[in-house]
Amino acid sequence: MDRPIQGIHHITAIVGNPQENVDFYVDVLGLRLVKKTVNFDDPGTYHLYFGDREGSPGTIMTTFPWDKAAKGKIGTGQVGVTTFVVPGGALPFWEERLTRKECNYDKTERFGEQSLSFTDPHGLKLEIGARDQGPESDWSYEDITKKQAIKGFGGAVLYTGAPDSTGELLTNVMGLKEVGTEGNFVRYEAEGDLGNIIDLDTSITDMGNLGVGTVHHIAWRAADDEDQLNWQSHVKEHGYRPTEVMDRQYFKAIYFRDKGGLLFEIATDPPGFGWDEKEPELGTSLKLPPWLEPAREKIENIVLPITIPK
C-alpha cells in the first residue's frame, strides 16, 4: 500500500450493565458519549460510542452492553489491554482522580513509558499513559481540562495465538514498523499520532472466550471509501478474507481475522457522528438506521434506559 495504516479508528468491547458502562467512561474517564445507537447485527443491544467532543477517529471506545451476560475470558485472539493517552505530565492528576473515584490502579512501565493500569467495572483491562504526541482534547468534564483530558488511544496490547504471523501482518501488510522488543513484548508503531503504538505480548498462550469484559474487535483507520476498497484488495492479495463493505452509518467497515485469532476491522474516517445530530446534542437520543426505524418502539422497550452523568 502507498499509504500505510495510520493507527486505530476504534476499539469495541463487550460490557455488562449499560448504566454502569456510561457512568465509568463518562464520570470516571471524562469521555463524551457521542452516539447512542444499537448493534445493527443484534438490535436488542445498545452500541455506545465514547470519545472526544466529536468522536474523532483514534478516540472512539465503543461498547456492546450485555446486561447479566456471562463473563468472558481474556486471552489469545483478543486485544488484551486498551491504552488511553493523556498529555505529558498529567499522570499525577489521574492518580488522584482514579483514587477519588475509587478505581484501584497499579503503576506499570513498558518501553520506558509509565502507565496506570486498571480495569473498568466489567473487567476490561485499561491503561492510561502520557505522551506529548497528538492533539489535546477540547472536551472537558468536571475538573478535567485539556491539559489532563484523555486525548484518545495510545494504542493497544494484542494477545495473539500466532505472534510471528500477527507481527508479519502488522508490518508487511499494514505498514507498521517494528521498533523494539522488551521481555515478552514486541512493539510496533504506525505513522499516525493517536492509536499508533501496538505491543504484542508473546507470553499469553491461553485462548480467550468472548463475553463481558473482553474486546470484540479492533478497527483501523481508512481515509475514505476509496482507501478502504484499496485495503480490501490489499489484504485479500495477502491471503486474508475480508468481508464486503458494511454500512455502519457513521463509517463503513470491512472485517477480517488474523492468523492469531484477532478480529480486525478497517473503518472509514467519514462521515463521522455529526450528520444525524448537532454537536451539542451528540449522544443524547437513541439513533437508529432507516431499516430499524419501523422497530423503534420494540427496541426502546428492550434496551435499558440510561442517564448521562452531567
Automatic annotation (TrEMBL):
An example molecular function term from Gene Ontology annotations: dioxygenase activity
Gene3D superfamilies: 2,3-Dihydroxybiphenyl 1,2-Dioxygenase, domain 1
VOC domain segment(s): 7-131, 152-269
Signal peptide: none
Xref: Pfam families: Glyoxalase (PF00903)
Keywords of the record: Dioxygenase, Oxidoreductase
Name recorded for this polypeptide: Ring-cleaving dioxygenase
Organism, as annotated: Alteribacter keqinensis
